[in-house]
Amino acid sequence: MSARIGVDVNVVRILFVVLAIGGGAGLTLYVLAWLVFPREGATTSIGRRVLGDRRTVGLALAFGSALVVVLLVLAALGLGFAGNLLWPVSMAVCGLVLVWRGADEEERAFLHELVGQAPLLGSTTHGTRRATVLRVAVGTFLACAGLGGLVASRNPAGNIVAMVIAANVVIVGFLVVFGPWWLRLARDLSLERRERVRTEERAAMAATVHDSVLQTLALIQRAAGDQGEVTRLARAQERELRAWLFEGRPPGSFDESAVATVTQAVSVIERDVEADHRVAVDTVTVGDCPLTDGLRALLSAAREATVNAAKWSGASTVSLFVEVESTRVSVFVRDRGKGFDPDAVDRDRQGIAESIRARVARHGGSAVVRSVPGQGTEVELVMPTTQDRM
Amino acid sequence: MSPDVSPDESPGGSGARRGDGSSGAASAADGRVRVFLVDDHHLFLSGVRAELGDSVDVIGDADEVAAAIELIGERLPDVVLVDVHMPDGGGRAVIEAIGRTHPEVRFLALSVSDAAEDVIGVIRAGARGYVTKTISGPELTGAIRRVADGDAVFSPRLAGFVLDAFAADPERRGDMVPSFDPELDQITPREREVLRLIARGYAYKEVARELSISIKTVESHVSAVLRKLQLSSRHQLTRWATERRLL
């Protein structure tokens, strides 16, 4: 704080101590300054953060209004004494809560340390019976003394300072007695909440694993003799699990109508072709962009080419590569299957190639089919775009 | 970049200094690559052992990071097949620890995860390649040989990641700070072509044929990309990998 004003730390402290001895106002000033000035390195002060936190302000307002009501009731009943007691107590509690909420991690640690250093309050950490007894004794004494002071100060009316001091003594007394206990209570509460969240998470995880992974494992055991089926099941499960673990999509929640980007559409092709035909589709996508009519046509052609490769090539793996660039999207569907001679194909396969070509051509794209007997086939599809990449 | 492999043919000499020769495929007495396996799944360890069979010389395995570091330092294999996901830091911890003390030991990362974060992570830690656990036995043997020879092993997916991370369009990395080392922070058009073919599912041999270059040239392109991937300082790369996971 002193760094902020540009005066030596000790000078500031001495000044405040003198003020504190002088009239008690110094202490208040010091606390105020502590609230208002940012700590070294921090950009906002505790006070600013308190005001910036809507929930805290709301809480304070709610508490304040409740307090006013209680005070009014007490006053109406003629219990001025209780009202006098309630005021300082609630003010102090409010202040402490606000400071605590506003403090950042480091400042909290500092406050903690401060509390721990006080020999009387440190009993939670040291935990000896003697310290507890001492604490309760001192606390009770303080509280009684304070109460006594309060009662005494009520008679010569107008001695506000004495009353405030007495009230503070009462508060300190209560804090000494109950402080550590409150701290522990708060800590236990937050621990319990964390534990509950963890348990719920574990239950959700177990349910998901049961519904998908264990079911698939059972299916795999039943289909153990059928290699193609086992591979298909394993791939499907793998895909589902990956989507869940890495993309946060719960199994079975895939919404077809929500497919809005190239990457999503490609993963749908991968899933469907693998489910319908016993091949693995190795997909690699580079970049992503929203789907347009042209890209939908491109991807439906890609799907047809992939299905074709799965059906006819005899290869166990089909590679699907999609690259989104700023001016075009290219798709390559490749298999290492038996291939064919493009010049001497039978009519229906020619037809398939034509239908793929026609689909993309309608939107200004192009398609090239390359195949060498015995070495496999590759279909290249390109669609020009004006879309921005994502 | 040509990998700094100078196959140690001189008997005794420098070979003895580094244990029983640790570079080049022809280091074991019978010419087989000496392989060490690190994986915390025993089922997988025995599966890989069986699949590799006699094609390589499996000189040991470990199922935890600490034991792996100790045994690899002792036995100095040519290639370590290391699982990415393990307790206590995973494959990365092993690669980094051995990389400091025995830089001549080469690593091939093996994982079920295809998450960009993991893949880029192990490569940047120093692995010379990355393959998924679904790879077939012969393919795995080929990849091990390639790594033993000092080359890089790029799966189609890894190639795709690199293409994505080193995107060609400037507007896609609009928020990128000017790079300090353009040579490390970009890939050349030729390298891009090679990567694209690998991503399309081409083997190195097929890439070479398609581009009418030798396999050696393909290998040196891929090694150059691997080096850029490992050394490039673009923080972009790490961020890209993290963001991709969130998509």
Describe the structure.
The complex is a heterodimer of chains A (390) and B (247). Chain A has helices spanning 2-5, 9-23, 25-36, 46-52, 54-76, 80-102, 105-117, 123-126, 129-154, 160-222, 227-247, 262-276, 293-312, 347-361, and strands spanning 280-286, 317-324, 328-335, 366-372, 376-384. By secondary structure, chain A is α+β, with helices and mostly antiparallel strands. A five-stranded mixed sheet of chain A has the order 1-2-3-5-4. In chain A, helix 5 runs antiparallel to helix 6 (80-102) and helix 6 (80-102) crosses helix 10. Chain B has 247 residues and is an alpha/beta fold. Chain B has two domains: 14-153, 3-Layer(aba) Sandwich (Rossmann fold); 160-246, Arc Repressor Mutant, subunit A (Orthogonal Bundle). Chain B has twelve helices and five strands. Chain B has helices at 13-17, 42-52, 65-75, 90-101, 116-125, 137-148, 156-165, 182-185, 189-199, 204-211, 215-231, 235-246, and strands at 34-38, 57-62, 79-83, 106-111, 130-132. The longest helix of chain B has 17 residues, at 215-231. Chain A binds chain B through residues 242, 246-247, 263, 280, 282, 284-288, 317, 319, 321, 323, 325-326, 332, 334, 336, 378, 388-389, and chain B through 114-115, 134, 156-157, 159-160, 163-164, 167-169, 171-172, 196, 199-202, 245, 247.
Global Rg of chain B? 18 Å
Question: Please, what is the oligomeric state?
Answer: heterodimer
Pick out the low-confidence regions of chain B.
Answer: 1-28, 169-177
H/E topology pattern of chain B: HEHEHEHEHEHHHHHHH
| Overall body shape of chain B | globular
Task: Summarize it.
The complex is a heterodimer of chains A (390) and B (247). Chain A has 390 residues and is α+β, with helices and mostly antiparallel strands. Chain A has helices at 2-5, 9-23, 25-36, 46-52, 54-76, 80-102, 105-117, 123-126, 129-154, 160-222, 227-247, 262-276, 293-312, 347-361, and strands spanning 280-286, 317-324, 328-335, 366-372, 376-384.
